TrEMBL record:
Record family assignment: Belongs to the acyl-CoA dehydrogenase family.
Domain Acyl-CoA oxidase/dehydrogenase middle intervals: 114-205
Taxonomic source organism: Kibdelosporangium persicum
Keywords: FAD, Flavoprotein, Oxidoreductase
SUPFAM superfamilies: Acyl-CoA dehydrogenase C-terminal domain-like, Acyl-CoA dehydrogenase NM domain-like
Domain Acyl-CoA dehydrogenase/oxidase C-terminal residues, every copy: 222-366
Residue ranges occupied by any Acyl-CoA dehydrogenase/oxidase N-terminal domain in the UniProt entry: 8-110
Xref: InterPro entries: Acyl-CoA_Oxase/DH_mid-dom (IPR006091), Acyl-CoA_Oxase/DH_mid-dom_sf (IPR046373), AcylCo_DH-like_C (IPR036250), AcylCo_DH/oxidase_C (IPR009075), AcylCoA_DH/ox_N (IPR013786), AcylCoA_DH/ox_N_sf (IPR037069), AcylCoA_DH/oxidase_NM_dom_sf (IPR009100)
Listed cofactors: FAD
Name of this protein: Acyl-CoA dehydrogenase, short-chain specific
Pfam families assigned: Acyl-CoA_dh_1, Acyl-CoA_dh_M, Acyl-CoA_dh_N
Gene3D superfamilies associated with the record: Acyl-CoA dehydrogenase/oxidase, N-terminal domain, Butyryl-CoA Dehydrogenase, subunit A, domain 2, Butyryl-CoA Dehydrogenase, subunit A, domain 3
Length: 373
Protein backbone atom coordinates (compact mmCIF):
# COMPACT_ATOMS: atom_id res chain seq x y z
CA UNK A 1 0.00 0.00 0.00
CA UNK A 2 1.27 3.48 -0.82
CA UNK A 3 -0.96 5.02 1.85
CA UNK A 4 -2.38 3.42 4.95
CA UNK A 5 -5.89 1.99 4.60
CA UNK A 6 -7.49 -0.25 7.24
CA UNK A 7 -10.22 -1.18 4.76
CA UNK A 8 -7.54 -2.76 2.57
CA UNK A 9 -6.63 -5.06 5.46
CA UNK A 10 -10.29 -6.07 5.71
CA UNK A 11 -10.38 -6.88 2.00
CA UNK A 12 -7.19 -8.90 2.32
CA UNK A 13 -8.75 -10.90 5.15
CA UNK A 14 -12.04 -11.38 3.29
CA UNK A 15 -10.43 -12.41 0.00
CA UNK A 16 -7.16 -14.13 0.86
CA UNK A 17 -7.22 -15.25 4.49
CA UNK A 18 -10.64 -16.20 5.89
CA UNK A 19 -11.75 -18.36 2.92
CA UNK A 20 -8.59 -20.45 3.22
CA UNK A 21 -8.00 -20.47 6.98
CA UNK A 22 -9.28 -24.02 7.41
CA UNK A 23 -6.83 -25.12 4.68
CA UNK A 24 -3.97 -23.41 6.51
CA UNK A 25 -5.12 -25.15 9.68
CA UNK A 26 -5.09 -28.61 8.09
CA UNK A 27 -1.74 -28.06 6.39
CA UNK A 28 -0.24 -26.69 9.63
CA UNK A 29 1.54 -24.06 7.58
CA UNK A 30 1.09 -20.47 6.50
CA UNK A 31 1.63 -20.24 2.73
CA UNK A 32 4.50 -18.14 1.44
CA UNK A 33 2.18 -16.08 -0.74
CA UNK A 34 0.11 -15.05 2.29
CA UNK A 35 3.24 -14.07 4.20
CA UNK A 36 4.33 -12.12 1.15
CA UNK A 37 1.03 -10.26 1.00
CA UNK A 38 1.43 -9.30 4.66
CA UNK A 39 4.76 -7.77 3.69
CA UNK A 40 3.27 -5.99 0.66
CA UNK A 41 0.61 -4.45 2.87
CA UNK A 42 3.25 -3.32 5.38
CA UNK A 43 1.70 -5.23 8.26
CA UNK A 44 4.68 -6.92 9.86
CA UNK A 45 5.78 -3.95 11.96
CA UNK A 46 3.79 -0.88 10.88
CA UNK A 47 4.31 0.80 14.27
CA UNK A 48 8.00 1.30 13.51
CA UNK A 49 8.97 4.81 12.35
CA UNK A 50 9.16 5.57 8.64
CA UNK A 51 12.96 5.80 8.71
CA UNK A 52 13.00 2.16 9.85
CA UNK A 53 10.57 1.01 7.17
CA UNK A 54 7.33 1.26 9.14
CA UNK A 55 4.33 3.55 9.02
CA UNK A 56 4.69 5.12 12.44
CA UNK A 57 1.30 3.59 13.19
CA UNK A 58 -0.38 4.34 16.51
CA UNK A 59 -1.23 1.50 18.90
CA UNK A 60 -5.01 1.85 18.57
CA UNK A 61 -4.77 1.32 14.81
CA UNK A 62 -2.29 -1.53 15.27
CA UNK A 63 -4.86 -3.20 17.52
CA UNK A 64 -7.48 -2.86 14.79
CA UNK A 65 -5.10 -4.48 12.31
CA UNK A 66 -4.51 -7.45 14.61
CA UNK A 67 -8.26 -7.67 15.22
CA UNK A 68 -8.90 -7.88 11.48
CA UNK A 69 -6.23 -10.53 10.97
CA UNK A 70 -7.59 -12.45 13.98
CA UNK A 71 -11.02 -12.37 12.40
CA UNK A 72 -9.61 -14.27 9.46
CA UNK A 73 -7.01 -16.60 10.97
CA UNK A 74 -5.59 -16.74 14.49
CA UNK A 75 -2.50 -18.56 13.27
CA UNK A 76 -1.57 -15.60 11.10
CA UNK A 77 -2.36 -13.20 13.92
CA UNK A 78 -0.07 -15.23 16.20
CA UNK A 79 2.78 -14.81 13.73
CA UNK A 80 2.15 -11.06 13.73
CA UNK A 81 2.06 -11.07 17.54
CA UNK A 82 5.51 -12.54 18.07
CA UNK A 83 7.03 -10.55 15.22
CA UNK A 84 5.63 -7.41 16.85
CA UNK A 85 7.20 -8.36 20.18
CA UNK A 86 10.63 -8.85 18.61
CA UNK A 87 10.48 -5.76 16.38
CA UNK A 88 9.31 -3.47 19.17
CA UNK A 89 11.99 -4.83 21.51
CA UNK A 90 14.77 -4.15 19.02
CA UNK A 91 13.40 -0.66 18.46
CA UNK A 92 13.13 0.14 22.17
CA UNK A 93 16.08 -1.70 23.67
CA UNK A 94 18.44 -2.30 20.77
CA UNK A 95 21.79 -0.65 20.24
CA UNK A 96 22.33 1.61 17.24
CA UNK A 97 23.97 -1.30 15.48
CA UNK A 98 21.11 -3.69 16.22
CA UNK A 99 18.55 -1.18 15.01
CA UNK A 100 20.53 -0.55 11.84
CA UNK A 101 20.93 -4.27 11.19
CA UNK A 102 17.41 -5.46 11.93
CA UNK A 103 14.63 -2.87 11.95
CA UNK A 104 14.14 -2.36 8.23
CA UNK A 105 14.27 -6.10 7.39
CA UNK A 106 11.79 -6.75 10.21
CA UNK A 107 9.48 -3.97 9.01
CA UNK A 108 9.58 -5.21 5.43
CA UNK A 109 9.12 -8.87 6.33
CA UNK A 110 12.49 -9.78 4.88
CA UNK A 111 13.44 -11.10 8.32
CA UNK A 112 10.82 -12.70 10.57
CA UNK A 113 11.19 -12.73 14.33
CA UNK A 114 10.26 -15.26 17.01
CA UNK A 115 10.05 -14.82 20.79
CA UNK A 116 11.89 -17.53 22.75
CA UNK A 117 10.91 -17.52 26.41
CA UNK A 118 9.11 -20.74 27.41
CA UNK A 119 11.26 -23.52 28.85
CA UNK A 120 10.12 -27.09 28.11
CA UNK A 121 10.98 -28.34 31.61
CA UNK A 122 9.15 -25.58 33.48
CA UNK A 123 5.64 -24.20 33.58
CA UNK A 124 5.09 -21.97 30.56
CA UNK A 125 3.66 -19.38 32.92
CA UNK A 126 6.90 -19.24 34.93
CA UNK A 127 8.68 -16.52 33.00
CA UNK A 128 11.51 -16.43 35.54
CA UNK A 129 12.67 -20.00 34.81
CA UNK A 130 16.24 -19.99 33.56
CA UNK A 131 16.88 -23.41 32.05
CA UNK A 132 18.63 -21.77 29.10
CA UNK A 133 22.00 -20.27 30.02
CA UNK A 134 24.46 -17.89 28.40
CA UNK A 135 27.95 -17.82 29.86
CA UNK A 136 30.67 -15.25 29.08
CA UNK A 137 33.29 -16.41 26.60
CA UNK A 138 36.00 -13.89 25.83
CA UNK A 139 34.26 -10.86 24.40
CA UNK A 140 31.07 -12.84 23.70
CA UNK A 141 28.79 -15.55 25.01
CA UNK A 142 28.10 -19.27 24.70
CA UNK A 143 24.37 -20.08 24.65
CA UNK A 144 22.95 -23.47 25.64
CA UNK A 145 19.36 -24.52 26.26
CA UNK A 146 16.02 -25.35 24.75
CA UNK A 147 12.83 -23.37 24.18
CA UNK A 148 9.41 -24.83 23.38
CA UNK A 149 6.10 -23.62 21.93
CA UNK A 150 7.91 -21.03 19.83
CA UNK A 151 5.37 -19.42 17.51
CA UNK A 152 6.87 -18.95 14.06
CA UNK A 153 9.91 -20.96 15.08
CA UNK A 154 9.85 -22.95 11.83
CA UNK A 155 10.26 -19.88 9.65
CA UNK A 156 11.96 -17.29 11.87
CA UNK A 157 15.18 -15.65 10.78
CA UNK A 158 15.79 -14.02 14.15
CA UNK A 159 15.18 -15.43 17.62
CA UNK A 160 14.92 -13.19 20.66
CA UNK A 161 16.15 -15.59 23.34
CA UNK A 162 15.90 -15.15 27.10
CA UNK A 163 18.65 -16.84 29.07
CA UNK A 164 20.10 -16.82 32.56
CA UNK A 165 23.43 -15.01 32.72
CA UNK A 166 24.20 -15.39 36.41
CA UNK A 167 22.35 -13.10 38.75
CA UNK A 168 19.51 -12.44 36.36
CA UNK A 169 17.98 -12.95 32.94
CA UNK A 170 19.26 -11.40 29.72
CA UNK A 171 17.91 -11.22 26.18
CA UNK A 172 19.91 -12.07 23.07
CA UNK A 173 19.34 -11.72 19.33
CA UNK A 174 20.22 -15.05 17.73
CA UNK A 175 20.16 -15.63 13.98
CA UNK A 176 18.44 -18.87 13.01
CA UNK A 177 21.25 -19.99 10.70
CA UNK A 178 23.97 -19.78 13.34
CA UNK A 179 25.83 -23.03 14.08
CA UNK A 180 24.31 -24.87 17.03
CA UNK A 181 20.72 -23.69 16.44
CA UNK A 182 18.35 -26.59 15.77
CA UNK A 183 14.64 -26.18 15.02
CA UNK A 184 12.14 -29.04 15.43
CA UNK A 185 8.57 -28.44 14.21
CA UNK A 186 5.72 -29.10 16.64
CA UNK A 187 2.87 -30.90 14.89
CA UNK A 188 -0.75 -31.74 15.68
CA UNK A 189 -1.33 -29.00 18.22
CA UNK A 190 -4.93 -28.26 19.15
CA UNK A 191 -5.03 -24.55 18.28
CA UNK A 192 -3.28 -22.20 15.82
CA UNK A 193 -1.42 -25.06 14.09
CA UNK A 194 -0.58 -22.88 11.09
CA UNK A 195 1.47 -20.58 13.32
CA UNK A 196 4.32 -23.01 12.67
CA UNK A 197 5.30 -23.74 16.26
CA UNK A 198 8.66 -25.28 17.06
CA UNK A 199 11.07 -26.40 19.72
CA UNK A 200 14.35 -24.54 19.32
CA UNK A 201 17.55 -25.97 20.77
CA UNK A 202 20.76 -24.00 21.28
CA UNK A 203 23.90 -26.06 21.67
CA UNK A 204 27.14 -24.20 22.21
CA UNK A 205 25.98 -21.25 20.14
CA UNK A 206 28.74 -18.66 19.99
CA UNK A 207 27.35 -15.13 20.24
CA UNK A 208 29.19 -11.86 19.79
CA UNK A 209 28.92 -9.25 22.53
CA UNK A 210 26.65 -7.30 20.17
CA UNK A 211 24.00 -10.03 20.44
CA UNK A 212 22.99 -8.84 23.92
CA UNK A 213 19.70 -6.90 23.75
CA UNK A 214 19.13 -4.42 26.54
CA UNK A 215 20.82 -4.49 29.94
CA UNK A 216 22.58 -7.61 31.14
CA UNK A 217 20.71 -9.40 33.91
CA UNK A 218 17.70 -7.09 33.83
CA UNK A 219 15.73 -8.40 30.86
CA UNK A 220 12.91 -9.77 33.05
CA UNK A 221 11.98 -6.26 34.17
CA UNK A 222 12.69 -4.48 30.89
CA UNK A 223 12.75 -6.33 27.56
CA UNK A 224 10.49 -9.18 28.62
CA UNK A 225 7.94 -7.02 30.44
CA UNK A 226 7.47 -4.58 27.57
CA UNK A 227 7.37 -7.35 24.95
CA UNK A 228 4.79 -9.38 26.85
CA UNK A 229 2.61 -6.29 27.29
CA UNK A 230 2.52 -5.82 23.51
CA UNK A 231 1.91 -9.52 22.98
CA UNK A 232 -0.96 -9.43 25.46
CA UNK A 233 -2.45 -6.46 23.60
CA UNK A 234 -2.21 -8.26 20.26
CA UNK A 235 -3.87 -11.39 21.67
CA UNK A 236 -6.66 -9.30 23.18
CA UNK A 237 -7.33 -7.61 19.85
CA UNK A 238 -7.12 -10.92 18.01
CA UNK A 239 -9.69 -12.31 20.44
CA UNK A 240 -12.09 -9.57 19.35
CA UNK A 241 -11.53 -10.85 15.82
CA UNK A 242 -12.51 -14.36 16.91
CA UNK A 243 -15.74 -13.05 18.45
CA UNK A 244 -16.53 -11.19 15.24
CA UNK A 245 -15.85 -14.29 13.15
CA UNK A 246 -18.08 -16.42 15.39
CA UNK A 247 -20.85 -13.85 15.19
CA UNK A 248 -20.62 -13.58 11.40
CA UNK A 249 -20.65 -17.36 11.01
CA UNK A 250 -23.68 -17.75 13.26
CA UNK A 251 -25.65 -14.93 11.65
CA UNK A 252 -25.11 -16.46 8.21
CA UNK A 253 -25.80 -20.03 9.32
CA UNK A 254 -28.98 -19.33 11.25
CA UNK A 255 -30.33 -17.18 8.45
CA UNK A 256 -30.09 -20.11 6.05
CA UNK A 257 -31.22 -23.01 8.28
CA UNK A 258 -34.50 -24.11 9.77
CA UNK A 259 -35.51 -26.37 12.66
CA UNK A 260 -39.02 -27.75 13.01
CA UNK A 261 -40.23 -25.46 10.26
CA UNK A 262 -38.89 -22.32 11.96
CA UNK A 263 -35.84 -20.33 10.96
CA UNK A 264 -32.98 -20.88 13.40
CA UNK A 265 -32.49 -17.15 13.63
CA UNK A 266 -35.95 -16.79 15.17
CA UNK A 267 -35.38 -19.21 18.04
CA UNK A 268 -35.09 -17.39 21.40
CA UNK A 269 -32.09 -19.44 22.51
CA UNK A 270 -30.22 -18.58 19.33
CA UNK A 271 -31.06 -14.91 19.63
CA UNK A 272 -29.79 -14.90 23.22
CA UNK A 273 -26.43 -16.36 22.18
CA UNK A 274 -26.11 -13.96 19.24
CA UNK A 275 -26.96 -11.03 21.53
CA UNK A 276 -24.20 -12.10 23.92
CA UNK A 277 -21.72 -12.19 21.04
CA UNK A 278 -22.66 -8.69 19.92
CA UNK A 279 -22.28 -7.34 23.45
CA UNK A 280 -18.98 -9.14 23.99
CA UNK A 281 -17.62 -7.89 20.66
CA UNK A 282 -18.41 -4.27 21.46
CA UNK A 283 -17.20 -4.40 25.06
CA UNK A 284 -13.95 -6.19 24.20
CA UNK A 285 -13.25 -3.81 21.34
CA UNK A 286 -13.69 -0.80 23.64
CA UNK A 287 -11.38 -2.29 26.27
CA UNK A 288 -8.72 -2.88 23.60
CA UNK A 289 -9.09 0.65 22.28
CA UNK A 290 -8.64 2.02 25.80
CA UNK A 291 -5.48 -0.01 26.31
CA UNK A 292 -4.14 1.15 22.95
CA UNK A 293 -4.96 4.80 23.63
CA UNK A 294 -3.08 4.61 26.95
CA UNK A 295 -0.09 3.15 25.13
CA UNK A 296 -0.19 5.99 22.63
CA UNK A 297 -0.31 8.47 25.51
CA UNK A 298 2.64 6.82 27.26
CA UNK A 299 0.48 6.24 30.32
CA UNK A 300 1.73 3.39 32.55
CA UNK A 301 -1.91 2.56 33.30
CA UNK A 302 -1.85 0.79 29.94
CA UNK A 303 -0.22 -2.24 31.60
CA UNK A 304 -3.25 -3.02 33.76
CA UNK A 305 -5.69 -1.91 31.05
CA UNK A 306 -4.09 -4.47 28.74
CA UNK A 307 -4.38 -7.21 31.36
CA UNK A 308 -8.09 -6.39 31.71
CA UNK A 309 -8.65 -6.24 27.95
CA UNK A 310 -6.92 -9.55 27.37
CA UNK A 311 -8.77 -11.23 30.24
CA UNK A 312 -12.18 -10.07 29.07
CA UNK A 313 -11.61 -10.55 25.35
CA UNK A 314 -10.06 -14.02 25.58
CA UNK A 315 -12.70 -15.45 27.91
CA UNK A 316 -15.42 -13.84 25.80
CA UNK A 317 -13.91 -15.37 22.66
CA UNK A 318 -14.06 -18.84 24.23
CA UNK A 319 -17.73 -18.33 25.13
CA UNK A 320 -18.57 -17.02 21.68
CA UNK A 321 -16.79 -19.88 19.91
CA UNK A 322 -18.44 -22.42 22.23
CA UNK A 323 -21.89 -20.98 21.46
CA UNK A 324 -21.05 -20.90 17.76
CA UNK A 325 -20.34 -24.64 17.77
CA UNK A 326 -23.58 -25.22 19.69
CA UNK A 327 -25.58 -23.20 17.17
CA UNK A 328 -24.07 -25.13 14.27
CA UNK A 329 -24.89 -28.48 15.90
CA UNK A 330 -23.11 -31.43 14.30
CA UNK A 331 -21.84 -29.14 11.56
CA UNK A 332 -19.92 -27.30 14.27
CA UNK A 333 -17.54 -30.26 14.42
CA UNK A 334 -16.93 -30.24 10.68
CA UNK A 335 -13.99 -28.75 8.82
CA UNK A 336 -16.53 -27.50 6.29
CA UNK A 337 -17.39 -24.67 8.69
CA UNK A 338 -15.03 -22.25 10.47
CA UNK A 339 -16.45 -22.56 13.99
CA UNK A 340 -14.55 -25.71 15.00
CA UNK A 341 -11.31 -23.90 14.21
CA UNK A 342 -12.50 -20.81 16.08
CA UNK A 343 -13.29 -23.01 19.09
CA UNK A 344 -9.78 -24.48 19.16
CA UNK A 345 -8.04 -21.20 18.47
CA UNK A 346 -10.04 -19.31 21.08
CA UNK A 347 -8.79 -21.62 23.81
CA UNK A 348 -5.22 -20.70 22.93
CA UNK A 349 -5.95 -17.08 23.81
CA UNK A 350 -6.80 -18.08 27.38
CA UNK A 351 -3.37 -19.68 27.82
CA UNK A 352 -0.77 -17.56 26.03
CA UNK A 353 0.65 -14.23 27.25
CA UNK A 354 -0.69 -14.85 30.75
CA UNK A 355 -3.25 -17.54 31.47
CA UNK A 356 -6.76 -16.66 32.60
CA UNK A 357 -5.94 -17.70 36.16
CA UNK A 358 -2.78 -15.58 36.32
CA UNK A 359 -4.76 -12.66 34.95
CA UNK A 360 -7.37 -13.10 37.67
CA UNK A 361 -4.67 -12.99 40.34
CA UNK A 362 -3.02 -9.95 38.78
CA UNK A 363 -6.21 -7.95 38.24
CA UNK A 364 -7.52 -8.73 41.74
CA UNK A 365 -4.18 -7.78 43.30
CA UNK A 366 -4.38 -4.39 41.59
CA UNK A 367 -7.93 -3.91 42.89
CA UNK A 368 -6.75 -4.54 46.46
CA UNK A 369 -3.84 -2.15 46.02
CA UNK A 370 -6.25 0.56 44.89
CA UNK A 371 -8.44 0.00 47.96
CA UNK A 372 -5.42 0.19 50.26
CA UNK A 373 -4.32 3.60 48.96
Amino acid sequence: METWDLAEVGRFVDDEVAPHANEFDRAERMPEDVLGRVAELGLWAPFLPAESGGWGMDMVTLGRVHEEIGRGCSSLRSLLTVHTMVSASVHRWGSDGQRERWLRPLAEGKALGAFCLTEPDHSGSDSTAEGTKAVPDGDGWILDGRKKWITGGQLADLFMVFAGTGGGMSAFLVEADQPGVDVTPLRHVMGTPASMLATVEFTGVRLEASALLGPRGWAAGTVMTSALDLGRYSVACGSVGIIRAALDACAAYTSARTAGGAALRDLPQVRAMVSNMVTARDAAQLLCQRAGALKDAGDPATIMATWVAKYFASTAAVRAANDAVQIHGANGFSADYPVARLYRDSKVTEVIEGSTQIQELTIAAEAYREVAR
